[in-house]
Amino acid sequence: MNRKTNVLVFPAGEINSIELCDALSTCVNINLYGASSVDRHGGFVFKNYVSGLPLISDIGFIGRLNDMIVDAKIDVVFPTHDDVAEFLAANRDKLDAAVVAADQETAAICRDKKKTLELFSDCGFCPNLEINGFPVFVKPRKGQGSVGARIAESLSDLPADIEGHVVCEYLPGEEYTVDCFTDRNGALQAVLPRSRQRVFGGVSVRGQNEPLTDEIRHIAATVNSRMKFLGLWFFQIKRSVEGKFKLLEISSRCAGTMCLSRVMGVNLPLLSVYAAMGYETAVFMNDYNVMVDRTLISRYKTDLKYDRVYIDLDDTVIIGGKVNLQAVRFLYQCSNEGKQVFLITRHNACHEDCAEETLRRLKISPELFEGIINVDADETKTAVINPESAIFIDNAFAERKAVHESLGIPVFDVDGIEVLLDWRK
Predict the structure, then answer these.
(1) Fold matches, 1-99 and 308-420
(2) 83-110: buried (b, 16+ CB within 10 Å) or exposed (e) per residue?
(3) pLDDT of res. 130
(4) Comparing 90-99, 156-165, 269-278, 323-332, which segment has the lowest mean pLDDT?
(5) Containing H/E element for 17?
């Protein structure tokens, strides 16, 4: 590549868009952008972020999207929602950039679970769609995750809008998501099964890589042969009463838990960018087992502005004789942003070694600091702090209280460092 490839993630606010950011932001040959119609989490993680694009249903959407594509020299657009993937697939010839999406017919079939199952009705892995008894499984024809999906125990449990739903045999066994990658020539290069062990809000928040069996390989190959994908896609399967895997749904967008495939060495989003750009690709992976478990993470925006940081050493940068990783992350963030950091410590007055020796022993470079200010046991830290555009970080309440009352600058305990971290990539 002669220059970096500019990739736009749209919409850039949900869990799978965060995975795309994690997967692509550190690639040296990619500039990453995020955009959304509805402003959600994207602004907290995408350094290059635009909000307020029209909805895809807006008559002016394609024009506004093309304006952004031209202004930012976008090469590839990565849709993250099933409706957006279907829309962009249908309108790719109107866009001034490549799209990571299946062809129009495939995207439309993926969006409709009834059409999906009808396409594979002659296959042994298609669930029975005839109601011969209860319980049965019911889910919307158009939906994502497990939203609206439920077990029906009797006729009275069936939805009134039966045409808007898929009703199939109840599958009581374990459920897998299978991450796949199809190259620019239509060849299936990756089939990566993972179990869905815990689900929250329709998203798999605990999963583990699983063996690729002949049964799963056959399902993946059959799907790939009947549909036209470009780049990443996934399908979900669940075991029947007889222990056979049956197809639930297929999607041509990124899945939030594709991180599991990525940490095993297969960066599906990056491979998909290459496929969309017309490059040849190859896949290999590491041979180990991994489990992922996720919970909510807090990211913050503040109106706090500062150019100078005063931070304590013992029980702040160092806790229990070990490096406080979050504090060191913040220190390097300050270094990247050109902020001055001063280590302000009573270490020399309370320990046999000096602060510099402790830093070197723990492999923290003293050069991270603009200066190391050693304070005597009976000396106040307020006397040596320049309060102009400054903040103060110290684990000791008395120290923070004195600085805040005397100098009026923001002060933070160790647990407050997280509000100072910038996660944008």
Answers:
(1) yes
(2) bbbbbbbeebeeeebbbbbbebebbebb
(3) 79
(4) 156-165
(5) helix 15-24
The residue ranking higher by pLDDT, 131 or 367, is 367
Beta bridge partners of residue 79, listed in sequence order: 10
CATH topology of domain 308-420: Rossmann fold (3.40.50)
Gap between the Cα atoms of 156 and 2, Å rounded: 62
Q: For 76-95, what is the mean pLDDT?
A: 95
Q: Which residues contact 323 (CB under 8 A, 6 or more apart)?
A: 317, 362, 363, 364
Evaluate whether 370 touches 391 at the Cβ level (below 8 Å): no
- Side chain identity, residue 171: L
pTM here is 0.89
Region 140-167: what's the mean pLDDT? 75
CATH fourth-level superfamily of 101-297: ATP-grasp fold, B domain (3.30.470.20)
Q: Let me know: does 95 contact 65? Beta carbons within 8 Å.
A: yes
Q: Beta-carbon neighbour count of residue 214 at 10 Å? A: 7
Short-list 110, 117, 95, CA closest to 229: 110
Could you tell me the two tokens for 345? 């410590």
Q: What is the dihedral of CA 319, 325, 326, 331, to 10 degrees?
A: 100
| Strands 231-239 and 175-182, bridge-based pairing | antiparallel
Instruction: Give the burial class of 72: count Cβ atoms within 10 A of its Cβ; 0-12 exposed, 13-18 middle, 19 or more buried.
Output: middle
Q: Which of 224, 251, 268 is nearest to 85 (CA)?
A: 251
Helix (H) or strand (E) holding 411: strand 411-412
Instruction: Kindly state the tokens that stand for 350.
Output: 């309370």
Q: Which CATH architecture has domain 1-99?
A: 3-Layer(aba) Sandwich (3.40)
Domains in the chain: boundaries: 1-99, 101-297, 308-420
- Cβ atoms 411, 403 nearer than 8 A: yes
CA–CA distance, 200 with 329 (Å, rounded to integer): 30
CA triplet 266, 271, 272: central angle to 5 degrees? 125
**Cα–Cα dist 296/374, whole Å:** 39
Q: Where does 183-306 show beta strands of DSSP type E? A: 188-200, 203-209, 231-239, 245-251, 291-293
